[in-house]
């Protein structure tokens, strides 16, 4: 058994039937590189070989009786690959609209409980004979950085796959632990809970003191407080999802980064800013105030580089979408990001969140979080209007069952109060963008995806860094 730790349990406690806390990838593969071509049986054979070696794919959650401690990860003795791997086909013509529609359906329904929290859909019928894969995992298992690491473990570096050097013994899971064993295992944690509570109080105090110092000395600029964002996208989140995809030229983004001395994340946020500005005007939702993006920040250090789970903090970045010129938006965002990033490093929200999560018992945490969700606390506090995540991915080709991966669109969850999630990941020479939204909160999501590609063109033209290469928006590449 392995106890959930850090902020991981919060992704379980905050989940509701209409807001599943899950992350996903929608990948597109070229099957012509596969020896012998594509077959569903070949995909299944690869997974049946590798899943037993990857603990996150064979573990399920078990709650400790009476909520005495956080849940435990345990091997699932009833694991059956066929409960997780599904074969589906897109309706004609099998393009971007059909693939994003299927991804929206997958993101809108929660994973089944009582088994390892993941599923994969092998998608046939894509245009040009391509093959898709929509893989979904609970957020309690991975964050963005861990997701890239897991992808590297699951996929290959060549079409031929990996040579078999050692024969692994068959995986034989233990039986599920009894209720008595679960309680017994929780006893040491229960006995040390006062110490964790003291650590949490100490961490909250230290964080508050550092925050006050930041406010007084002003060295990191004005404080970024997660309250009072505009009311845009404030509608309660329902179960229906809308998904769209875009692909951006990584070389153009790097040219802007070098030209202005900013970061890739600054350029991504500026692209989101300009696209949202145009989108809101077109749909009569323009606000006089800048939207606020909740930007996850990895606090993963060398000691946990190979660990899964979540090592996250967050920044709250005004997107300057109330500025008219693309380069003004980029410069404002870069300056603000530098300031809030410095604040995050000084204040340390991530360690505080982890300490509080460790200290609060599930019997209290779950009902308090659910009450806050029921009351629409995030919508009233308005911590942000959207979430924007940017994760570096591999710059070399990956293969799955011999098929070359051409695109990998990441998708993150939406929650009540933050109804739009834009997730970006680099792969080879592109930035792949996955947009997930509450269907009733954000109209015309494909239009927003197209506007992101157009906004990168506008930035490139305004900067004079060269002609913008056209990269098809929401295209099955």
User: Treating each run of at least 4 consecutive H or I residues as one helix, how many helices?
Assistant: 14
- Name of the CATH architecture of the largest domain: 2-Layer Sandwich
Major sheet summary line: 6 strands, mixed
CATH class of the largest domain, named Alpha Beta
List the uncertain runs.
Answer: 467-477
What report would you give on this structure?
- This protein is α+β, with helices and mostly antiparallel strands and 477 residues long.
- The chain has 2 domains: 2-164 and 178-188, Chloramphenicol Acetyltransferase; 197-393 and 414-463, Chloramphenicol Acetyltransferase (2-Layer Sandwich), CATH 3.30.559.30.
- 38% of the residues lie in helices and 20% in strands.
- The strands form 3 sheets. Strands 5-6-7-2-13-12 form a 6-stranded mixed β-sheet. Strands 8-15-14-11-9-10 form a 6-stranded mixed β-sheet, with helices on both faces. A 3-stranded antiparallel β-sheet has the order 1-4-3.
- The longest helix is centred in the middle third of the chain and has 25 residues, at 193-217.
- The protein is globular, with a radius of gyration of 22 Å.
- Residues 467-477 have low confidence and may be disordered.
């Amino acid at each position: 058994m392995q106890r959930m730790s850090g902020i991981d349990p919060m992704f379980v406690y905050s989940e509701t039937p209409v807001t599943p806390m899950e992350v996903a990838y929608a990948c597109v593969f070229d099957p012509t590189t596969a020896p012998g071509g594509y077959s569903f049986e070949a995909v299944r054979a690869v997974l049946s070989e590798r899943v037993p070696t990857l603990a996150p794919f064979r573990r399920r959650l078990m709650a400790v009786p009476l909520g005495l401690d956080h849940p435990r990860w345990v091997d699932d003795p009833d694991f059956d690959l066929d409960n997780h791997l599904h074969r589906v086909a897109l309706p004609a013509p099998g393009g971007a609209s059909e693939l994003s529609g299927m991804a929206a359906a997958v993101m809108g329904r929660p994973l089944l409980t009582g088994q390892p929290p993941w599923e994969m859909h092998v998608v046939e019928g894509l245009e040009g004979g391509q093959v898709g894969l929509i893989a979904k995992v609970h957020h309690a298992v991975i964050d963005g950085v861990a997701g890239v690491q897991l992808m590297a473990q699951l996929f290959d570096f060549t079409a031929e796959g990996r040579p078999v050097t050692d024969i692994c013994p068959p995986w034989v899971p233990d039986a599920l632990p009894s209720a008595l064993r679960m309680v017994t295992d929780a006893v040491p944690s229960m006995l040390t809970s006062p110490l964790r509570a003291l650590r949490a109080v100490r961490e909250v105090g230290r964080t508050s003191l550092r925050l006050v110092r930041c406010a007084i000395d002003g060295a990191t600029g004005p404080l970024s407080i997660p309250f009072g964002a505009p009311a845009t996208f404030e509608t309660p989140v329902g179960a229906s999802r809308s998904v769209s995809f875009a692909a951006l030229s990584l070389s153009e983004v790097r040219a802007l980064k070098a030209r202005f001395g900013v970061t890739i994340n600054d350029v991504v946020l500026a692209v989101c800013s300009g696209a949202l500005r145009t989108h809101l005007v077109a749909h009569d939702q323009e606000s006089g105030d800048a939207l606020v993006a909740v930007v996850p920040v990895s606090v993963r250090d060398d000691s946990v580089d190979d660990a899964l789970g979540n090592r996250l903090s967050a920044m709250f970045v005004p997107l300057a979408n109330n500025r008219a010129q693309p380069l003004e938006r980029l410069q404002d965002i870069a300056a603000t990001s530098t300031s809030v990033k410095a604040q995050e490093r000084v204040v340390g929200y991530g360690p505080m969140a982890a300490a509080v999560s460790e200290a609060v018992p599930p019997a209290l945490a779950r009902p308090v979080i659910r009450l806050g969700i029921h009351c629409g606390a995030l919508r009233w506090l308005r911590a942000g209007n959207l979430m924007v995540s940017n994760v570096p991915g591999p710059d070399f080709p990956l293969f799955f069952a011999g098929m070359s991966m051409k695109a990998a669109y990441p998708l993150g969850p939406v929650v009540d109060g933050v109804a739009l999630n834009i997730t970006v990941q680099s792969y080879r020479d592109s930035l792949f963008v996955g947009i997930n939204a509450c269907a009733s909160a954000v109209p015309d999501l494909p239009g927003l995806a197209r506007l992101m590609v157009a906004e990168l063109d506008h930035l490139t033209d305004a900067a004079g860094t060269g002609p913008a290469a056209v990269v098809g928006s929401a295209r099955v590449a």
